[in-house]
């Protein structure tokens, strides 16, 4: 099978152009592994995570370009995610404040409400990211050129295709 080599520099660091589904999923796996690694490194992990935000913009943006959409859709998903996180902490903070104002007694209901709001809003944000990521990975790109450039080069096999039907039913020799 003859194919081209994947250009990781372009995939991860260039916001321009288009990428196909295969390159997108490779980029997503790199982002997932990078985020796991960032979570394991105390201080430098934060810097790595900030760099991964840019890599994510490049990977998601080029995939959006391939389906003919603007990469600003990615900013919309980030905005919704941030808004849900703010709501989660606002509701949780209010519940914990109510628990603290209860004459120094532990208010289990308020603590449960805080936990529930954190789970609800952060879970909803995670579901949105998961759905968005899968949607971009399964939707077909535009076949021809679009305003973001030429379609990504698809790897095509140069091996001949065997046209013998299953079961070995070959025509009789003449």
Automatic annotation (TrEMBL):
Organism for this UniProt entry: Marinicauda pacifica
Q: What keywords tag this UniProt record?
A: Membrane, Transmembrane, Transmembrane helix
The cellular component terms of Gene Ontology attached to this UniProt record, alphabetical and capped at eight, are: plasma membrane
Which parts pass through the membrane?
24-55, 76-99, 111-138
The region called Disordered is annotated at 152-174
Give the top-rank taxon of the lineage listed in the UniProt record for this protein: Bacteria
Tell me what this protein is called: DUF805 domain-containing protein
Pfam families the UniProt entry points to: DUF805 (PF05656)
């Amino acid at each position: 099978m003859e194919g081209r080599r994947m250009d990781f520099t372009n995939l991860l660091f260039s916001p321009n152009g288009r990428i196909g589904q295969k390159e997108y999923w490779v980029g997503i796996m790199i982002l997932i592994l990078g985020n796991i690694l960032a979570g394991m490194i105390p201080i430098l992990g934060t810097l790595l995570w900030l760099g991964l935000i840019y890599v994510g913009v490049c990977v998601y943006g080029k995939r959006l370009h391939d389906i003919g959409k603007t990469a600003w859709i990615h900013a919309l998903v980030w905005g919704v995610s941030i808004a849900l996180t703010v709501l989660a902490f606002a509701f949780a903070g209010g519940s914990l404040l109510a628990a603290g104002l209860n004459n120094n007694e532990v208010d289990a209901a308020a603590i449960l409400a805080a936990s529930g709001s954190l789970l609800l809003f952060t879970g909803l944000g995670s579901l949105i990211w998961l759905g968005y990521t899968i949607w971009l990975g399964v939707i077909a790109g535009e076949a021809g050129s679009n305003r973001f450039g030429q379609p990504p080069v698809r790897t095509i096999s140069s091996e001949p295709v065997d046209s013998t039907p299953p079961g070995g039913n070959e025509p009789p020799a003449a």
